[in-house]
Amino acid sequence: MTTTTPNLLERSESAPQDTVRAAPVQAPPTCRMFETPIIEKFSRVHPIAPFVFWIPVLGYFLARAIIAGVAAWQIASLFVAGALLWSLTEYLLHRYVFHKIGPKLVQRRMFFILHGVHHDYPQDTTRLVMPLGVSIPIGVIAYLALRYTLGLANPSLVEPMFVGFGAGYLAYDGIHYATHHFKMTSRVGKWLKRHHMVHHHTGESARWGVSSPLWDWVFGTMGSPTTSSKH
Description:
The protein contains 11 helices and no strands. With about 230 residues, it is mostly helical. The protein has a domain of about 140 residues. The chain is globular, with a radius of gyration of 24 Å. The N and C termini lie far apart (about 60 Å).
């Protein structure tokens, strides 16, 4: 006498209904934004790219300040001022530009390209740090703005402040990547990760700072205490 083992479908059909479980559906890690392959390619960036490009550039400007004879205390002070300027720029861009959604289709499309894709696909490693096509124009605008404001008083003071601005930007990109992809075990790291996850997952229009909560505290956009305590 021979016996046959029922196939998988037969076993699932004969099994009690409460034992049948649907396989979990996982969201795709990324999406295609542009039909043109070259544009799609440049919409993505390796997370190390900003550091490879900007560290030598910032080193060059720091060397210029040192060669120009700017005092060490001036370099340190202007570096901190530049980093604070970046943190404010980061806050304002995130709050008023990256999250600006207009009623027209083209405005909604622009929001998705600038930032919405990150909220829909937050684990996409190739669309997390700022592309060079965005950070370079911001850097040029920042340098020229410093050149024609602070530089009118003393041109040699522009370089160290710009270096601080650029270092603040790199800190932003690094911290942003880490909050999504690293297991942050330090007390500060855990706090920064929680701070950013509240922005992503609670639906509150709050916590616009990524590298620092400073301007959220200043402008009162930390969110409700109840939400903060839950995360």
